[in-house]
Write a structure and sequence with these properties.
This protein is α/β, with parallel strands linked by helices. The chain has helices at about 90-95, 100-115, 125-130, 130-140, 150-155, 165-175, 185-195, 215-220, 230-235, and strands at about 35-45, 50-60, 65-70, 80-85, 120-125, 180, 200-205. Strand 6 (about 180), helix 7 and strand 7 form a beta-alpha-beta unit. The protein is globular and about 50 Å long. The protein starts with about 35 loop residues before the first strand and ends with a helix.
Length: about 240
C-alpha cells in the first residue's frame, strides 16, 4: 500500500489512502461532503491586479474540474458576499466571441469581486453542459435560423444539461452558505436554495447585446426563463 503523503505545507490538502471507515461492498454509502483541495493565491489582471485565491476541491458530486476564484470581503462588511456561478465558455471567455454574452458576464463578475470581494465559481459546463464540439455543431444549426435550444435538440441533447449540485457543494466547503447571487437565471436560484444555500438577494447581471447575439439572448429570455429585462433589452 502506498503511504500517505503530507504536502499541506504547499497549501494542498493531505492526500493518502483511507485507513478507516471502509464500507462493505453493497452497503449504502453516505455522500462525502466536498472539501478544499488547494488554495493558491494568484495576482489576476482581470481582477484589477488584485490577489485572488484559486481554490480546487475534493469530493464534488460530478467529475468536472470546477474551481473558485475568491477575493476576501472587507471585515466590516455585513452584507452577504456576492457570488457568480459562471459556466465555462471557451469561445466567449477566452476568445471574446460576439455570439454570446459569456465573456462580458465573466468580466463583470470579476470586476465586482475586485471592488467588493466575493467569489466566482467557474463551472466546467461548456455549452450548457453539452461540451465544446457539440456547442460548435449547434452554432452551425443556429446559422440556419434555429434558436439555441432547438439546435441542442436537433443533435439529440437537452436544452440545458447543467445542474448546480457541484456549485452548492463548493459553497458549503467554502463556508459561503449565505450569499447574494449575481445572475439572470432563475434555475441557479432554485437549485442553490434546494441545496441549502441562503440567497439573500438576486443581483441581475448586465445585458450585453451585439448584432450577433441578440437572437440568442431573446431565446434565453423567451424560452429559457431568464429575466424580463433581458428580453426587453435584447429586443430593443
Amino acid at each position: 500500500m502506498t503511504p500517505s503523503v503530507d504536502i499541506t505545507q504547499a497549501g494542498i490538502a493531505q492526500v493518502g489512502v483511507p485507513q478507516a471507515g471502509i464500507t462493505q461492498v453493497g452497503a449504502p454509502q453516505a455522500a462525502v461532503p466536498a472539501s478544499v483541495r488547494a488554495r493558491v493565491p494568484v495576482t489576476l489582471s482581470r481582477v484589477r491586479d488584485r490577489s485572488a485565491d484559486l481554490i480546487t476541491f475534493h469530493d464534488l458530486p460530478d467529475p468536472g474540474e470546477h474551481f473558485a476564484i475568491v477575493v476576501p470581503t472587507a471585515s466590516q462588511d455585513t452584507e452577504a458576499p456576492l457570488v457568480r456561478l459562471h459556466s465555462e465558455c471557451l469561445t466567449g471567455d477566452v476568445l471574446g466571441s460576439a455570439r454570446c454574452d459569456c465573456g462580458p458576464q465573466l468580466d463583470e463578475a470579476l470586476h465586482h469581486i475586485a471592488l467588493h470581494g466575493g467569489a466566482v465559481l467557474y463551472l466546467r459546463q461548456e455549452g450548457r453542459g453539452i461540451g465544446l464540439y457539440n456547442k460548435l455543431d449547434t452554432y452551425v444549426l443556429q446559422s440556419q435560423n434555429h434558436d439555441t435550444f432547438t439546435a441542442n435538440r436537433m443533435i439529440g441533447r437537452g436544452d440545458d444539461e447543467r445542474d448546480y449540485a457541484a456549485a452548492a457543494a463548493m459553497l458549503h466547503a467554502l463556508g459561503l452558505t449565505r450569499i447574494r447571487l449575481l445572475t439572470n437565471n432563475p434555475d441557479k436560484v432554485r437549485e442553490l436554495r434546494a441545496h441549502g444555500i441562503d440567497i439573500t438577494a438576486v443581483v441581475p447581471t448586465g445585458v450585453y447585446v451585439t448584432a450577433e447575439n441578440a437572437r440568442y439572448l431573446s431565446a434565453k429570455a423567451e424560452l429559457g426563463g431568464h429575466t424580463l429585462a433581458l428580453l426587453q433589452e435584447a429586443a430593443a
